[in-house]
UniProtKB/TrEMBL annotation:
Name of this chain's protein: precorrin-2 dehydrogenase
Pathway linked to the protein: Porphyrin-containing compound metabolism; siroheme biosynthesis; sirohydrochlorin from precorrin-2: step 1/1
NCBIfam families according to UniProt: cysG_Nterm, PRK06718.1
Documented EC number(s): 1.3.1.76
Length: 203
């Protein structure tokens, strides 16, 4: 059973071996999290080439050699050649995070299907049973948790910062955190105004 975490990956060095469709999908997610990416592959998709041209990642146009992953914090092997993927797994140190696209057994993490709404992240994994089902569940969740939900979560974040800075009484803090998280509060819509009203009533 996997242990879910949210990695703080901004500015960490991720090396992706392979430049195909699967590599591109993983790269898009890594870029959203602001990783520093190097792709090692003799050929790459149009999408990856564009990202390289725009300076969003570094593409080293070559086949894999063990030196490529020496400095990597995270390694993703997504070539279409099983032996190459195996060689990447063999070259990785035990302390490196490693994902082999066609070999979950030799990976020490796998990648879930993800819905992002600003600060809200919902990740779905079937533990490798069916990536397609993970994708289906992701689509259902994306409908259920729409863009509006992201704006509400952003509002909650701002309120939380405000409360932490300005309300010292722990009991009142808790009361406020709970109140703004209620569905009844959310449904009111005019959150800012309601929050000010709540503050006036409470403080
Ligand atoms: C969720 C998602 C995230 C992402 O990749 O970003 C993801 N796979 C996605 C799609 C997808 N993958 C595959 C298909 C073709 C249909 C099919 O085969 O079912 C499709 C559908 C498509 O492409 O449309 C084939 C496939 N996948 C793996 C193997 C190898 C194996 O199982 O041994 C093979 C066979 C390869 C072969 O034929 O050789 C392995 C893994 N794929 C995982 C994640 C990890 C487990 C996640 C979980 O716990 O559920 C894991 C273990 C490792 C990893 O990659 O981290 C992403 C959906 C993104 C989205 O849309 O939201
Ligand atoms: N985990 C997943 O989500 C998932 C999904 C589908 C397929 N897969 C597996 O992922 C693999 C890649 O699939 P794809 O559709 O992206 O393939 P693809 O054919 O589109 O791309 C393969 C890439 O690997 C590169 N490559 C080949 N030999 C290399 C080497 N020696 N060094 C560096 N790069 C090399 C090629 O240049 C190319 O960029 C397949 O083996 C497939 O089994 C995994």
């Amino acid at each position: 059973m996997g242990y879910p975490v949210m990695l703080h990956i901004a500015n960490q060095h991720v090396v992706v071996i392979g430049g195909g469709r699967v590599a591109e999908r993983k790269i898009k997610g890594l870029l959203e999290a602001e990783a520093k990416i190097t792709v090692v592959a003799p050929s790459a998709t149009g999408g990856i080439q564009q990202l390289a041209a725009a300076g969003a990642l570094v593409w080293r146009r070559k086949t894999f050699s063990p030196d490529d992953i020496k400095e990597a914090w995270m390694v993703i092997a997504a070539t279409n050649n099983r032996e190459v993927n195996e060689a990447v797994a063999a070259a990785a140190e035990p302390y490196q995070l490693i994902n082999i696209a066609d070999d979950p057994e030799r990976s020490n993490f796998h990648v879930p299907a993800v819905v992002r709404r600003d600060r809200l992240t919902i990740a779905v994994s079937t533990g490798g049973a069916s990536p397609t089902v993970a994708q289906q569940i992701r689509r259902q969740l994306a409908e259920q948790y729409d863009e509006d939900c992201g704006r509400y979560i952003e509002f909650l974040y701002e309120c939380r910062q405000f409360i932490l800075r300005n309300v010292s009484d722990e009991r009142i803090r808790k009361k406020l955190f709970k109140a703004i998280a209620q569905e009844s509060f959310r449904k009111k819509g005019n959150w800012e105004e309601e929050f000010h009203r709540l503050l006036e009533m409470t403080l």
